[in-house]
Automatic annotation (TrEMBL):
Catalytic function, reaction form: Hydrolysis of alkylated DNA, releasing 3-methyladenine, 3-methylguanine, 7-methylguanine and 7-methyladenine
Record lineage: Bacteria, Pseudomonadati, Pseudomonadota, Betaproteobacteria, Burkholderiales
Domain HhH-GPD, chain residue ranges per copy: 56-212
Gene Ontology MF term list: alkylated DNA binding; DNA-3-methyladenine glycosylase activity; DNA-7-methylguanine glycosylase activity
Name of the protein described by the UniProt record: DNA-3-methyladenine glycosylase II
Species, as recorded: Sphaerotilus mobilis
């Protein structure tokens, strides 16, 4: 069995500009950004794989998600191409369950694959669509909520100004870095995040890094 290849990684061309902007405008970012040197957000460039991986990882640890993902790919994904929607449909639920996927996640993955096969995911239009329009399209897929759609905007499309207020890590990071660990309301988190515009995704990424130096991989 061949091992699925890792797609080429792409980094945002706005990253250095964003770092300069944030360090100039925000006292926390001025201290936080230099701690991580040349580390950058990276995208693997395949929409279906990114969304499938986000579904696999829902409600389980990063380590567990990686283990299930690798077992899932080992069922027959090939080394010379990205994960294909048709392969997921052909695989069948029993095989998917054998990789450690719940019945619900199997349904979600199959629904995701069917949306791609039926042309209901308009990849070619995304560059001309604003963030909210893309979120609306993605949340129509079973198993994808607003948080997952926002992660997709950040990690796949590398949109620069996403503020995922439903993300517990972001809220915790804002609490620790801006409020000395005191509880933070959604409104307070939004106020901090709005000051990061137009590079809220970049600041969010650094807040995540302040909690876990290893970057999240989608």
């Amino acid at each position: 069995m061949s091992t699925p290849a890792t797609s080429s990684l792409v980094t945002p061309d706005y990253w250095d500009e964003a770092c300069r902007h944030l360090m100039k405008r925000d006292r926390v970012m001025k201290k936080l950004i230099p701690r991580f040197g040349e580390a950058r957000l990276q995208s693997r460039g395949d929409a279906f794989t990114t969304l499938a991986r986000s579904i696999v990882g829902q409600q389980i640890s990063v380590k567990a998600a990686q283990s299930v993902w690798l077992r899932f790919l080992a069922l027959g994904a090939t080394a010379d191409a990205p994960l294909q929607p048709g392969w997921v449909i052909d695989l069948g639920v029993e095989a998917m369950r054998s990789a450690g996927l719940s019945a619900r996640k199997c349904d979600y993955l199959r629904d995701l694959a069917q949306h791609f096969i039926d042309g209901e995911v308009h990849e070619s239009h995304w560059s001309a669509m604003d963030d909210e329009a893309i979120i609306e399209e993605l949340v129509a897929i079973r198993g994808i909520g607003r948080w997952t759609a926002e992660m997709f905007l950040i990690f796949h499309l590398m949109r620069p100004n996403v503020l995922p207020l439903d993300d517990l890590g972001l809220i915790k990071g804002i609490s620790l870095n801006y409020f000395s660990g005191e509880p933070v309301s959604r409104a307070e988190a939004r106020e901090v995040g709005d000051a990061w515009a137009p590079f809220r995704s970049v600041a969010t990424w650094y807040v995540w890094r302040s909690l876990d130096p290893l970057p999240v991989d989608y």
